[in-house]
């Protein structure tokens, strides 16, 4: 299925947000996620389905000031 992840189109086989994170190589990283502009907390990723055409944002916190 095709998704837009961080403004880039990806062809993926994942069916949940957690599986997508693994498929894209983010597993184990401290990240924040959103689907179609709605924040998804880490504990909910395993049971959050993704569907064709969704916009996914995956961001890592930055240090600095």
From TrEMBL:
Gene3D superfamilies: 3.10.20.30. InterPro entries: Beta-grasp_dom_sf (IPR012675), Mopterin_synth/thiamin_S_b (IPR016155), Thi_S (IPR010035), ThiS/MoaD-like (IPR003749). It comes from the Bacteria. SUPFAM superfamilies: MoaD/ThiS (SSF54285). NCBIfam families: thiS. This is Sulfur carrier protein ThiS.
């Amino acid at each position: 299925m095709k998704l837009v992840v961080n403004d880039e189109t990806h062809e993926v086989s994942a069916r949940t947000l957690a599986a997508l994170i693994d498929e894209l190589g983010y597993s184990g990283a401290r990240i924040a996620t959103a689907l179609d502009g709605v924040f998804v907390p880490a504990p909910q990723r395993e049971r959050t389905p993704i569907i064709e055409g969704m916009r996914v944002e995956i961001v890592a916190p930055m240090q600095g000031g």
